[in-house]
């Protein structure tokens, strides 16, 4: 790919987590029986009118602020007209020429480099319903079924600038964007439930050229990995075309996960002229500075600010930082633990390691866990003081995770405290030396490895409770 | 005199004096419908049982001695584009011929609360597009004053029913004159309120930024009474205005001394029928004699109003009517092999020619490449029209004109000539463009005995003022005294 430069822009649709729909009070809960969360308004029956859900506007403002955008003070809605069975009014209420927000950016970290990806615009609109076809698509089907539960759920469309230069940057942008939205809590961003969706635009151009090449729009990207793979496939496909002296056609292409290819989907069912015009059934929404500031005050610390703090204040490696801040609750758990036990790297190891493993196995969220920051800090302190071994600490954590018991109690109940009593250990050491003359001889002959075996024997004799560091010291002293 | 001949306020007083029962009133009007509607054909659906059960409830409440709402026991009809739960709402279209609404429009809810018995749903031009009710997919409605003439439109059924005493009052909808023009043709009172005064929730949309629901009544007092009952902010309609609703009957008085009346010179030009013009000018003179100050004013953008209207209204209609696609409800062409053909056939077969004409006009006006030249330009001209009126209302209290350029025309006369049909709304549609209230009140009759409507326009939320002037006109002209000669029982009209 050195001959060409790749240009990528992404359009992300995120459903807002309001309780009710954008223009009626139907529930937005996912997974209900088809067509049970509908009313005359979202079904677009003759004579109904939309009434704007203020909460959705507020969530959109919150998302826009989190993405560093300027908020449009005067907002109106427009109708996007097209025919499709999942669109009951045959128009979608959206925003056309005056989007709610513009000129934002997202900071991404890829391969140790930091980069800003511009956000062109964010606008608020309503969801369409869901079609299920008996065949591959609507024209090739015997019948299609429509579920209008999703119809009218509020959505923000976030359009990026064509600022990404590789599929990896696109992937980083998406994970960062999702993370920001989840931090604010305005969207749950579940791609598997369709509450987050992404279309990608990609073109390539010879390195050094400042003119954009012909772009291709990619659809059916059902995961962030799919976005990356489809973009990787597409940049190769376009490069091959250009190498052969052919042209890239401006079109929409469908990503096929099973074959790992994109294919052209210019279908007749797609209308091009949406005949946008201002929605006469809604009055303009004025977003005051006071409203914006009220929302801004509510914003949590965002991932990028956390990232900077974790790397610079705590001195955490970027890898650890990325992992921990990828989940707001985990980041907060981490910080709470560090406050109780100021050893960020050790805390991060425990959070990313044992705790994450236990959470995964039980399917629990970190906020549901019986292991609180207090428990984890206590367990680490016990290791630090030499009261328990690292191995025992894992047992303590697991037990506390299951039962919620106090770590100190677990240590007592299970007898996990290390033997750090020199006199007691010296006795065992003497016995082990007497019982293993061969190893003793090996050690004395310079086989340093033999000491490990002897330590193991002491540990075995004490059922793992001996302080291994101390045992090692005692052995060496005796054998010298 | 039969009960069906009375006005709403007369019946209200008789009910309170217990001279009649609500059941008697409703039965009387139902019988009238029964005997006459085969001739007038105002009703698409008659809901006798619904009306009777409401009348019964009114009588029960009356017997208990509890207070009754103003319109309790006064039977009415609704234009068939107002949603009524469990009752067909057809818009006089094949598309919705068997459509039964699952919800009530806000105005109907309010009338239910007012305990006004629903007699039925009234014929109209399909989806409210037309000026003669000849665009109904079902049948023509006759003008009670001359059965060979149209009742006007699109609320032709609503106006004819009131004129023929087949309802004590009705509601219509007015997008470009659809209440006032048929009221003028049928010799009754029709009021289009300020945009936002009455909730549009449940009114099947034609052109959302122009549509308003309003009363069609036998006299001006009834118009004030009904408007008071149906006006007000509705959380279900964002464009309805949160402004207190006065008791509009309080505005009614004969005295017009000192009132400033504007005569727009652009409304008294060629194309206006000389007899109509004479009647209107005579009325103006009477107002002047009664002490009103009359002055000529100018609304300079009047000539652009019609063209502008025929961009904006069809543009909005093309979008509003797109939902009738055969997927979920209403007519569906059954022969189509795929969804695209189904859309095309459903809409080709389900809509009548006028509706299709306007959908095409509107689709064209909104298409990329034409949007700026048509829709956007039209919106700018609309602003100029609004400003014309604002300026005028700095000088005068009301603006008057004839409601229509001609009296009711014969059926079939204009149906094949859309342009001349559109021209019959030239004096009414500016009020929709400017979102201001306007009323049509009978002011006299032509030689041939056809009613002439007098239009009074007021500033936004000036319903009280236009009702006041309309009341004065009603008293000064005595036009209300004359009623159409219709048979007591069935058959053709006498005289």
Walk me through this protein's architecture:
- The complex is a heterodimer of chains A (480) and B (495).
- The model of chain A has no long low-confidence stretch (mean pLDDT 93).
- In chain A, the strands form four sheets. Chain A has a nine-stranded mixed sheet with strand order 2-6-7-10-1-11-12-13-14. In chain A, strands 5-4-15 form a three-stranded antiparallel sheet, with no helix packed on it.
- Chain A is elongated and about 95 Å long.
- Chain A is α+β, with helices and mostly antiparallel strands.
- Chain A has helices at 54-66, 167-184, 224-243, 289-298, 303-312, 318-325, 328-340, 344-362, 373-384, 390-403, 407-414, 422-435, 437-444, 450-461, 468-479; strands spanning 4-15, 70-71, 74-75, 78-81, 91-94, 101-110, 113-126, 130-133, 144-147, 154-160, 196-206, 216-221, 251-256, 261-264, 277-278, 285-286.
- Chain A has three domains: 4-294, no CATH class; 301-414, no CATH class; 422-479, Orthogonal Bundle (Arc Repressor Mutant, subunit A).
- In chain B, helix 2 runs antiparallel to helix 3, helix 5 (156-163) packs parallel to helix 6 (180-186) and helix 9 crosses helix 11.
- Chain B has helices spanning 8-16, 22-40, 48-64, 106-113, 156-163, 180-186, 220-230, 274-289, 302-320, 339-350, 353-366, 372-395, 418-423, 429-433, 463-477, and strands at residues 43-46, 76-79, 118-122, 169-174, 189-192, 212-217, 260-264, 293-297, 398-402, 438-445, 451-457.
- The two termini of chain B are 19 Å apart.
- Chain B is 38% helix and 12% strand.
- Chain B is α/β, with parallel strands linked by helices and 495 residues long.
- At the A-B interface, loops of A face helix 9 and helix 10 of B.
